[in-house]
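2024-03-11 09:14:02 INFO receiving multi-entity request
2024-03-11 09:14:02 INFO entity count = three
2024-03-11 09:14:03 INFO echoing inputs for audit
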Amino acid sequence: MELYVVQFLTGLANAASLFLVASGLSLIFGVTRIVNFAHGAFYMLGAYIAYSLTIRWQTPLGFWLALLVAATAVAVVGALLEILLLRRIYHAPELLQLLATFGVTLIVEDAVRLLWGPEDLVGPRAAGLSGAVSVLGRPMPVYDFVLILLGPAVLGLLWLLLHRSRWGLLVRAATQDRDMVSALGVNQKWLFTGVFALGVFLAAFGGGLQIPRDAVSHFMDLSIITEVFVVVVIGGLGSIGGAFLAAVIVSELNAFGILILPSISLVLMFLIMAAVLVLRPWGLLGKPLSRARSMATREAAAWKPLSPAGRSAALAATIGALCLPFMLGDYGVGVASEVMIAIIFAISLQFLMSVGGLDSFGHAAALGLGAYGAALSVQHFGVSMEAAIVIGPLVSAAMAVVAGWFCVRLSNIYFAMLTLAYAQIVWSVAFQWVDVTGGDNGIVGVWPSDWASSPAAFYWLTLAAAVAVVALVRHLTFSPFGYALRALRDSPTRSATIGISRQTIQHIAFVISAFLAGLAGVLFAFLKGSVFPDTLSIASSVDGLIMVLLGGFGTVSGSVIGAIVYKVSSIWLMSNTDFPRLILGSLIALLVVAFPQGIVGTLQIWMMRSRLFAGRPQEGTARLAETGGLS
Amino acid sequence: MTALLEVRNLSKSYQGVKAVQGVSLQVAPGELLAMIGPNGAGKSSCFNMLSGQIRPDSGRIHINGSETTGLSPERIFRLGVGRTFQVAETCLSMTVRENVQLALQSWSTGLLTLRAFTGRLDRNFRPQADALLALIGLDDEADRSCRELPYGDIKRLELAIALAGDPKLLLMDEPAAGMAMKERILLMQLTSRIARERQLAVLFTEHDMDIVFEHADRVIVLNRGQLIAEGSPQSVRADPAVQAVYLGSGALYAQGH
Amino acid sequence: MLTLAKLNSWYGPAHILFDVGLEVKAGEVVALLGRNGAGKSTTMKSIMGLVDRHQGSLIFRDTDISRLPPFEIARLGLGYVPEDRRIFTDLTVEENLEVGRQAGRSGNAAWSPERIYEIFPNLAEMRRRPAGRMSGGEQQMLTIGRTLMGNPYLVLLDEPSEGIAPKIVEQMADAVTLMKREGVSILLSEQNLPFARLISDRCYILEKGEIQFSGSMEELEARPDLREAYLAL
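2024-03-11 09:21:47 INFO inference complete, emitting structure
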């Protein structure tokens, strides 16, 4: 009994920091509609700066002053970031914004390594609060009691700020309709910067609060960001009260999960999130989001099957690709195989995103399940490569049948969050179920059959698969099924009234996409001879997103180009620089600002403009201007 | 039962607010029934219950002899109901013809058979789609992207899409909204003609009283979720209760037709 | 009060307005008539700085507003009531009005919630109600009231009668007349000619992004050919 009480109190104390970070994320999302992936990075940065200050100022006042100064400093960095980067992309598609903030996360990770070194740092106890009190005979840190009180106090302050000040009123109004607020004479830019800085302040303060309890490390950002995503989704995006409630639920779950079933505590959290989303699609205290503004304008031009000229070009590119092994060495051919696999992975995601409008943040699940499915069947049943190539995708598809049933009940950002949760569940199973998956050590010894064991032969195998998959996806896009899927993206309302059943069609698309990504996973396993949980990580999902967005998600198969450009440059960066994340992150941020429509999409727009400016305006665009809202 | 649409005692509340209370109505084949009333009177809720977007709390709906209460929009489509929206809902990324072809394909074969995965949509049901487009006078625009179309044409395209499922009942929510005066009249003339020729029952809402009094065979008036008047356009127009809650003095629409 | 000359606007790559010129004098109600897609809303959005790109001269009370961001234009005393109303549905009626509040201006009647409630008595009865739970007509009143809270010299009213019950349209006409009497100038875009006729002093006709006619309402009455050609009556 005593143990449970102490665990409960510890859970409450854990909730404080989580709530601070989550409320900041929720606040920022509410007003700017940006899912700030960099929020974890700010949390980490807050912790690092606070660490450096607290070891110098070891007095009761000094500790809290250090936290405040650190959080303020990070808030200033956040405000600068908002002004320099985010202001340029508020009107870009949501996913690009996510990508840009992911780029920032990469930059911060390397910057922290550069400034504080790679080791974990253990900070001092909070001066004056380092003792413990006895709760039912068990010791409980005084500091934890402070945290338990701090959470509700911050919640109260935020409520007062939002409901009792004019600034708060404007923030609430902007949460609903930011352009209208501006048309009423409010300087929206500074409102956004202010909200962003406040949100970042809360995250950084939350990071500083952890110093007396945990070591400071550069893994803090990704571990907190997934947890925070779960919290804001359970609580409802944009709801501060919801964030508090969900932070408490998740923290208590962790506190007791560790007692009861330590190995599945991670899975448990995501299962709760999935359950909440299915029962209350907008979270516990959230509201349905207003319809995304740019959903129907993804493509620059109407999609058409390839013209004869396009077919010839595709054929020529394929022949050129066939000849590559005669021009490259073994290393180069290996890289080329990896690029082909990336193409399959990217195009499978593009089918889901561009045609289906289903933005998956967790496509790594499909990739990794294919890889693990194949590797496990090779390891445990000794099947051949040929059989594994069939089994892997089927495993991925079978899991997608189950996960898809939940996911397609939601749409937009919530769909994205649930797919992220799905991928994290699969990841944590692969990571924690050591007996079967080998955990962190992965599965090794997954080698191709003899005929495909030379680099060139394996490359041709991946090339054949890539060509087949791209052709198949293009075919599906122009099949009646593909049109039905696109109709659901364009207008769910219209689709329902012409007999298109949303969940069934989208579910099928989800499974098809997972099957194809699974194929990429199998090939990847055989290319590397091994599988590690990394394949299932957030970074791997983000790789897919980058390739699609870079290629242009308003296109049918622009991600082919995106995959080539991204894979080649990231492989080069990884092997040629000491701080690849710093460079990659900056590159992503730059690309997002320069090519918001992706490479292929931007090219298409330039072509269309040059045609349009030659003639009179199109009536239809005029109509959009008249009815398309303020912006 | 001769009515094609038969609604009895339909009710719906949201968080304790009664949006629709005990509404009953019938529409016969070939008849145009207008539903009018102030904003927030429950017209949209009624419409959404008829087409399956929301589920009624109580009451029953029969369409063409089958009970449709609480069915999904997809099922209701299969029973022969076409729907147009106040703000036109079409697939903007497709061409005009593809919009109609998709509806035709859905109606004829569904979209979950093997054929939905093998063929190419733009090669299927072309003649039928072109015939429908000719009927509404959009045949010249068939290959244009829907995004490039003027709004008036999009509203007409919606009608073609609604007709693709060979409906017995058309539900039109403010068909004239956002159109120019001349386009409004043409659209409603076209609708009346098709309704008579194909013996369609048409239920529509409208704020343009010139359209209502000119084209409706019968008018029902909703206020605060309840039916307050029903009858010929002339009698509804002369009804003092309707004037008090909705029509006003009549200064703002043309007098007499 | 407001003078537009040679206004050209683009939406994305498409050129929408061609050399539009118009003028609103102090105390006037001017109607901008034309079909859907003629460019009426784009004209209003261009004045407020809400289109992708525009060129030409926009002078509001001796200030060149063509390069200003929307919020600065609003702060000069130019109010905008968009066609789709865009009230803040989660906020109460009172809070919606409060968002629109700006400091008083010289030579201009100062508006307060109490005075707004006088013009729109319906609103007074529902001060603490979330605006999302009001009817379309009440929302239209609220969005006008919200704009008046900024104490504007000139209000741009974009299709105030669209989708509103005839009875509410009559109330709207009364409100516009009252605003005019209080010294607020109004530029109104409309398709509903009877409504425009009831409240306007002068009018312009816009078609395919160009001004086709300008004159008094009486002059328009005398030209059935114009109404036939451009308003499709």
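2024-03-11 09:21:48 INFO post-check: Chain C touches chain A through 40 residues (CB under 8 Å).
2024-03-11 09:21:48 INFO post-check: Chain C has ten helices and ten strands.
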